[in-house]
Design brief:
Blueprint (H helix, E strand, L loop, with lengths): L1 H22 L4 E5 L2 E5 L1 H26 L1 H30 L2 H14 L4 H14 L2 H11 L6 H14 L3 H14 L4 H13 L3 H13 L5 H19 L4 H14 L4 H13 L3 H14 L3 H8 L7 H12 L6 H13 L3 H9 L7 H14 L3 H13 L5 E4 L2 E3 L16 E3 L11 H54 L5 H14 L34
Antiparallel strand pairs: 1-2, 3-4, 3-5
Length: about 550
Amino acid sequence: MIRLVLLIVVLALIAFGASWLADRPGEMVIAWQGWRIETTVPVALAALAAFSVALLVVWHLLSLLVRAPSLIAAFSRRRKREKGWAAVSRGLIAIGAGDVDAARRARADAQRHLPHEPLTRLLAAQAAQFAGDQDDALRTFRAMLDVPDTRLIGLRGLHIEARRSGDIAASRVLAEEAAGQAPALTWAADAVIEARCAEGDYAGARAVLEKQMAHRGIDKLQYRRRRAVLLAAEALALEASDPPVARERAVEAVRLAPTLVPAAAVAGRLLGLNGDLRKATKIVETAYAATPHPELAEVCAHLRPGDAALDRLKRIRALAARAPDHPESLIALAHATIDAHEFAEARALLQRVSAEPTQRICLLMAELEAAEHEDVGKAREWAARALRAPRDPAWIADGRVYDDWGPVSPVTGKLDAFTWAVPPGVSATPVLEHEAERVRTAIAAIREKEEARREIARAAELERLAAVDAAAHAEALAARAAAEAAAPADGHATVAQATDVTMKADPVIALPPLPDDPGPDVEAEPADAAPSRKRLFGL
């Protein structure tokens, strides 16, 4: 818009000047060497302008002739450069499209036209990787290390090749060098953090994270989350060996990320052991309100070791109030009510989630049947249903299910990769061992009660038989004494024989067979018996 206005102004000035000269024609006379030229002022000005234009054209032609060799050389270089960039573009597109031959041809053209360009070397390395020529790729990446502009590219390429070949030590050295040269580089920092976490060096991993934050490699929210993950991992590692340090790390992790479940769990356990129940309860309840998790419920129930079942139930009720309609709250309450022998309440809680029971709910119903009614048959039936029940939430990282949380993924090494969710596409998987152990304990308690009752009955039967045997023996002695009193002195043999006959005539009292236990604890089976069915979860 401004240029248009300026053009209009210039044209207006030219028109004004032309009209001004037309109104004042004037005359000019030039006498030189016998020549006399008479003309008007406008004509003289037009001739002067034409002469100037012709002079400029001649000067430009002469300059072009003088600079022709250099112009031709520059044109050739520009043309060659354009062909090189076109080859680089074709090569990258061919690699993306999966055309190995086209990528190889484009690489040759780029190396011929642009041999010293960084992108040409990158194309050569990627083409070698794409074609599976690892030696060529390694040579290309090593050549990049000698050029400052491509050094980081070379380090990353060598790092990737080292990981592919399984050389973890070499990949770590390369990542350490790249992180030292550029601390904000994401791939280098992540690789170093992964390596140090694998070695248990969480303090070293935090140092790399601090450098990355100082060089603006990540934002503040991401930094706080990652630091909390590393602190929680260190607290879990030190929980048994150094509880005070572990407690300090866990509390700092909770301060940075209050909803991080592993940090809240280990902080709650350690604070509870230290006697700080109020702070521990607050941390656990805050994390539970964001993510209801069974580990948090377990920590809350056992914050104070040695508490009675009713005390644990009271704390679980307060915790479940933070997420009253969540299935995990109902399951936690069912656990606590079964432990407190509040079976009616436990059954009412489980009925609220029994429309589509998951594996844990089925095992809780099995435990409830065993604990309340001592019904092993129904307990086994619910345990069998657990095999076909939908899966409960679990720790997932990179599509795989794990029993425990970790700071980095075992598959890719990514930091903070674990999530608590239902595994997608999984409808039936092995049940949780903890829940199955509770069912086994409940059934074992039933067996112990039955065994105790059998022992009592066996002892009573033995006492009765002993009493009968004593009475018969006393009767035999009385009969012998009477026979001795009635017999003559020389009739000892006869009396003795009569006594022996009497004793032999007494009925022999045999113990009745002990009742068999037809349950699953029978260790030996007859040789011709049918093979027993396989037990469910060892129940």
